[in-house]
Design goal:
single chain, mainly beta, 28-stranded mixed β-sheet, 16-stranded mixed β-sheet, 48 strands, about 10% helix
């Protein structure tokens, strides 16, 4: 009897314990049980861009195995590695220190799939004529640390062996799995065959002074490329930094970069996020190119590119930092939307300055010196974007320019058939300080919008002075809520003349010293009132005007295109001679055209113009393609498909999504199913014991 009761108690205890374990396995996090996650495990999403191991370039090497390279041999003190057929093979997880020189062989990591391997390079030189100098065949993750103060060098040959090619090995450093490079030493790579550093999975660089010369790409990865705290110089026969995977991000947080590439400087099949660092890029094609989205939130970026300086198939967001650009084609080009919310942006030489389907300027300081349009919203598959612009622009248009803040300056001193701000749809101005200057006498328009297709140009706020040629001048629409003036005059004003709008008691409302000659000006400023009189001053001449409508036109010259009723004034009241003298451009003493007006000083020269090849780089011969004449830009690639709505979700939407996520039932993973199965087996064993000893 007592035995049966003992068995009964055991069965009951097993049953209760099994049920408790099952509940904990499924709902442990809700009860405050911490889940241990290996952020360095391959495939782990982690909690950020870098793990603690990624950032640890000073790990303790006291217990590490020591591998001393001796020409075509090597000596090994400690376990986990061996020397075979000219190569050093690392076959186990653990820590290893490498020193010395290896000729004609490779260091190969071939460990278990879940292994983590730490390699410390402390004065290593490897020359391998037909394979990678360092190859990761298998591991979970390899940490390649450059010992503080050490100098490490690797050189590959011009042709790889059949075995290496069959393995798709294509870099001086090549990894099939995740690879991290960190530490405080230097690493110089010379790739005479294809690439410098090539990783099939994630490539993380968090330190070191890295110099790469490669006949093709300098540094490339497939799944992710994340960099911080590094000093990188690269000279590439193709692209400098490359991410091939469409689902990943090329992310730069900090560091110093000097990149020279015959093709693109930065190229990503996914997104590009530049959150800091100092980058100098010289590119024979695009400076920064993405098949996804591009964001610049901080840092300093200087680009000298033969084609577009920045090009994205998706959206471009400029939110901070400084950007200096020289481009053979567009300065900044998106096949979708461009949004500017902050930063200091100077596009000092380009064809078109900023081009996209939709352009939304909310802040920052943007200065453009183009040879064609300053801003060009060129139409496309829909009026969508990053929020306010999409809501403010007319729903009937396919494209728009919206300016609600910041400072915008456009000065085109050479082109006659170009526009300052050009939209195939609407131009909507609700804030900011806008200055536009185009030369007189051409078929240009300071503000050009799609009036022929129902587009409008409206102003509800901000300060605008836009100068150009009266022959194609367009004014603001009567639906504007801030008064605006279009003033056309046949006499013209020379370059360097000052335009001012004043109250009759002498208060200056807005003023601009115009770098180009002009004979048309659009002005709008806060505080203008219907029925009030003002004085427009151009050079030494002035005229008193009374605002008879919200968007009125004045002057003594007719425009072939204008957006609003013309109200011809009596002409200039000449208080000091002709307004600005002759319409012709200024000339120097020899009669040649004078140099264009001086551009603002952003501090120092443009870095990209004087960039010398990175140190310790072989001479690949020939001149850098961006230094000479810029050829005709190629046709834009067709990425196909329609772009999804990129508008930011509202707080209400986010709250609803969070509530829905909280109510979502737990979906067990494979390990949970295994534990649940074991619990059920334990329960079954308890029941069998109960039946077995039942009287």
């Amino acid at each position: 009897m007592s035995t049966r009761k003992g068995i009964d108690f055991i069965c009951i205890a097993v049953l209760i314990l099994t049920l408790l374990l099952t509940v904990l396995f499924i709902n442990g996090e809700r009860f405050g049980i911490q889940v241990l996650v290996d952020e360095d495990a391959e495939g782990s999403a982690g909690s950020g861009w870098f793990t603690a191991n990624d950032l640890n370039g000073g790990w303790d090497s006291a217990s590490a195995a020591v591998i001393t390279l001796k020409g075509d041999k090597a000596s090994i003190s400690g376990g986990g590695a061996y020397f075979y057929n000219g190569d050093v093979i690392i076959s186990s997880a653990g820590r290893y220190v490498l020193r010395g020189a290896l000729e004609g062989g490779s260091v190969v990591v071939d460990a278990e799939r879940d292994s983590k391997v730490w390699l410390l390079l402390d004065g290593v030189e490897i020359n391998c004529p037909d394979d990678a100098c360092l190859r990761v065949d298998q591991a979970d993750k390899v940490f390649l640390t450059l010992a503080e103060g050490s100098d490490n060098r690797m050189t590959s040959g011009e042709a790889y062996s059949d075995e290496a090619l069959a393995d798709n090995t294509d870099g001086v450093i090549f990894s099939h799995d995740d690879l991290t490079i960190n530490g405080g030493g230097s690493l110089t790579l010379s790739a005479l065959y294809r690439h410098g550093i090539s990783a099939n999975d994630d490539l993380i660089i968090t330190g070191g002074r890295i110099r790469v010369s490669a006949v093709q790409d300098a540094i490339r990865a497939n799944d992710a490329l994340h960099i911080c705290n590094a000093d990188i110089a690269a000279e590439a026969g193709d692209d400098a930094l490359v991410l091939n995977g469409a689902g990943g991000t090329l992310y730069i947080e900090s560091g110093t970069f000097a990149l020279s590439a015959d093709d693109d400087g930065l190229r990503s099949a996914g997104d590009i996020l530049l959150a800091g660092g100092s980058l100098q890029i010289r590119a024979g094609n695009d400076g920064v190119q993405s098949d996804g989205n591009i964001q610049l939130t901080d840092g300093s970026l200087s680009i000298n590119a033969a084609d577009d300086a920045i090009h994205a198939a998706g959206d471009i967001l400029l939110a901070g930092g400084s950007l200096q650009i020289r481009a053979g084609d567009d300065g900044i080009h998106s096949d979708a939307a461009i949004t500017v919310t902050g930063g200091e942006i100077l596009i000092e030489d380009c064809y078109e300055g900023v081009e996209a389907l939709t352009i939304d300027i909310r802040g920052g300081d943007l200065t453009v010196y183009p040879t064609d349009d300053g801003l060009n919203a060129n139409g496309g598959s829909g009026g969508f974007g990053f929020g306010p612009g999409a809501e403010t622009a007319s729903s009937d248009t396919e494209t728009w320019v919206h300016i609600s803040g910041g400072t915008l300056t456009v000065a085109n001193t050479t082109a006659r058939d170009a526009d300052g701000i050009d939209s195939n749809g609407d131009i909507v101005i609700s804030g900011g300080v806008i200055r536009v200057s185009l030369p007189a006498g051409g078929t240009n328009s300071a503000l050009d919008y799609g009036s022929e297709s129902g587009g409008t140009c409206t102003v509800t706020g901000g300060e605008i002075v836009a100068c150009g040629s009266y022959s194609m001048a367009e004014g603001f629409d009567e639906s504007s809520t801030q008064c605006a003036i279009l003033y056309n005059f046949s006499e013209g004003a020379e370059a360097g003349s000052t335009v001012s709008l004043e109250t009759l008691d002498g208060q200056t409302l807005v003023s601009y010293t115009v770098p180009c000659s002009f004979d048309s000006v659009s002005i709008s400023a806060p505080g203008l009132q219907l029925g009030e009189s003002y004085r427009i001053v151009i050079g030494d001449s002035s005229e008193e005007i009374t605002l008879s409508s919200t968007a009125a036109s004045y002057g003594n010259a007719a425009s072939s295109m204008f957006g609003g009723p013309m109200n011809w004034g009596s002409g200039m009241q000449r208080t000091g001679g002709r307004p600005g003298g002759h319409r012709e451009e200024r000339t120097d003493e020899s009669g040649a055209p004078a140099a264009p007006p001086e551009k603002p000083d952003f501090g120092g020269g443009f870095p990209g113009a004087e960039m010398s090849p990175p140190p310790d780089m072989p001479d690949f011969g020939g001149s850098f393609p961006g230094d000479g004449e810029m050829g005709t830009p190629p046709d834009m690639p067709d990425f196909g498909g329609e772009r999804p709505d990129a508008a930011a979700p509202s707080e209400e939407t986010e709250t609803e999504e969070q509530a829905e996520a909280e109510q979502t039932q737990f979906v067990p993973d494979a390990s949970t199913w295994i534990l649940l199965t074991l619990s059920l087996l334990a329960l079954a064993c308890g029941l069998l014991l109960a039946f077995r000893f039942e009287p």
